[in-house]
Structure formats: structure tokens, C-alpha cells
Amino acid sequence: MGNYVGHDVAKLGFGMMRLPMLDSGEIDIRQVEEMVDLFMREGFNYFDTAFGYLGGKSESAVGQAVVQRYPRDKFLLATKMPPWELKKPEDLQRVFDTQLQRTGAGYFDYYMLHALGKDSVKICDNVGAWAFIRDLKAKGLVRHIGCSFHDTADVLDEILTKHPELDFVQLQINYADWDDEDVQARLCYETARKHGKAIIVMEPVKGGSLGTFSGKALDMLKAVRPEASAASWAMRYVASLDGLITILSGMSTIEQMRDNCATIHKMEPITEDDKKTLAEVLRLLNEIPTTPCTECNYCTENCPANIPIPSIIDIENTRLTYENASKNSYAFATRGKGKASDCIACGVCEERCPQHIRIVELLKACAGIYE
């Protein structure tokens, strides 16, 4: 894979965005520790978190489950600077100090400007974020600097042209988004490679949606590889690409952890016949008009009505798939929170959505169906 930053990193990373949760709304830290221990025993050691994941609780969970329990030189830790938190230059240091305090890590191996796109780049420009992360690297507080990215390839090209100091870029890549006109996974991957940047893959299973389908699509995969999970096909697809640092999976259960570890350990590159099979699977999946939500929860962080948007989308996707509207599930998901009809159409959620979902319009439709 060439001599670049990350060439010796194990090719499975633990994304700490979808951790197992207790009914109380707190992270199930005991289960997280069990997952971390399995992950480390299997020979993997890359952990990815962010300032805003799980309302800020993810970084603290990493501190408790990883940093406090393993020598610092035995794992790699990545986190991210959120542009939406940056109102003035001083906020950069405030956020970074908070991240060091939450994790107790001392330094970060990979540090990113989070979820960059056309608008958030302007924020980074205005507050001096580029110089700030360069300075962190010069001081040894971070070892590699980069960005996670959600926009079109031309925007990525402009960023990497203006900022050659970036060591890597984190991209949403999976077989469903490879040729998608909005996500532009292929074009973004090719742009990063053109600039000689190492790549971290996020959303290889597209928020779990490429690992949980059933019916004819799953039957097609089982006919080729009876023992392989749908998720393993998605992981193999991205693992076959060149120039990767690692592939992040937002694992929520021990079972998902075991499956992903086994897939990477027994990695078999995707073949041309496999790609034809996945193209047919994708055709079948696209016949169901579901919404491509990955449950990243970026949309909920600043929602003034506290609407559980991903949960509502999941309920609506279930209705579309199985033709069964569950008002009970909707009532449970919105208990103590905002309903779809509480949306004031401020558009904050749509500005933050990496999948470019027309959330305001969707919530209006769901209010009519479930309320």
C-alpha cells in the first residue's frame, strides 16, 4: 500500500459513535470495556471518537474503557474538532482542552476537523482552525492531522489543494455510495488519492443498513457465500481499496465486533463477480424507497424541538419495507421528546446531515402518518 502515514495500522478501527446504551440513556460502559478487550485481543488498536458523539459522552467513555485500562503506546486514538462549536478563535483551545480532559489521553494520534463541507470550511477559515491544528502537531499534541469530509469531490479537491499539510482524509465509502450522486464516494476517494492522501473509511456498512437487510437481496449473497454475513460483504468491498489507513465500524454489540474481526483476519479481496453480485443486491435494495439515514445523530445535536429524528426515520423505513405503520413505536420513540409535528423548519438538521436528507419535508410527512 505504499509508504504513507498509517501504512502499519491494522485495517479495522473501532468507531465509538454507536456504543451500546442502557435504558437510562447512559453508555453501557461494562459492555464497551468487554468489546474493547476483545478488539485488542484480536490485534486491533485504532479507536475513533469525536467531541460531539453521544452528546459528548463518547470521548469520556474512551477515556474510561481504553485510556485508563491500557498503556498509551498500545493503542491509537483519533478525535475531531467540531466547526459548529467554533464561534471565535478562543473556542479552538477550549474544545481541545476539553477533549484532553475527557479522554486523559495526553495526545491524539489522529486529529481531524470534523465533517468538513463547503460551509464548515468557511468557519475553519474564519477562526484559524488550520493554523491551530498545525500548531498542535508541531507541539506533539497530535501526531497526524486531517479532516473528515461530507461534500462533493470538487470541494474536497479545493480543500486538499489549499491545505497540503493535511496527512489524511476520512471519507464515507461503501458499495451503496460508491457511485451515488450526492455522496460521491468514488470521486472523493479518487480525489484524495490524486493528492497523495491516506484515507480512513467511515460508514463502510452505511450505518448498519448494508448489514441488516433480508429477503431476496440477502438470499443472493447467501447463494454465493452461505456462511458470510451481509456486513462482511460490505467490509470486504472497502477493504479491497488501496491507500487505506483503516476502516471504521461503529460496532454496538460483541457479535458485530466478532464478525468484523473475522472478516478482516480472513480478508479475501472483492472479485469482479462479487461486484456484479453487489450491483444486483443494490438494485433490489433501491427498489424500496427508504431514507439513507446512518443514525449519526448530527441532526439532533442542535434541534430546538429535541426531535429524535433518526428514530423517526427508522420507524418510517420499517413501514416502507414491511408496509406496516407502527404508531406504538412512534409514541415510544417520541416519549419525553419532540414529535415530528414540533418541527419549526429551522433547517439546522439539514445543514448538519451528511446524507443530505430533506429532513423537514420528511418530518412533515411522518407527522401526518403517525400523529
Describe the structure in your own words.
- It contains 15 helices and 8 strands.
- Helix 1 links the parallel strand 1 and strand 2.
- The N and C termini lie far apart (53 Å).
- It has 2 domains: 274 residues, TIM Barrel (Alpha-Beta Barrel); 73 residues, no CATH class.
- It is globular and about 55 Å long.
- With 371 residues, the protein is of the alpha/beta class.
- Strands 1-2-3-4-5-6-7-8 form an 8-stranded parallel barrel, surrounded by 5 helices.
- Placed side by side, the strands forming the largest sheet appear as 1-2-3-4-5-6-7-8
Termini gap: 53 Å
Alpha-beta content class? alpha/beta
CATH topology of the largest domain: TIM Barrel
What is the N-to-C succession of helices and strands?
Answer: EHEHEHEHHEHEHEHHEHHHHHH
- What form results from the Cα inertia axes? globular
What's the CATH H-level homologous superfamily of the largest domain?
NADP-dependent oxidoreductase domain
List low-confidence stretches. Answer: none
Helix content: 40-55%
* Discrete helix count: 15
CATH architecture of the largest domain: Alpha-Beta Barrel
How are the secondary structure elements laid out?
Blueprint: E1 13-15, H1 29-41, E2 46-48, H2 57-67, E3 76-81, H3 90-103, E4 108-116, H4 118-127, H5 129-139, E5 142-149, H6 153-162, E6 168-172, H7 185-194, E7 198-202, H8 215-224, H9 230-239, E8 244-249, H10 254-265, H11 272-286, H12 309-322, H13 327-333, H14 348-352, H15 359-370
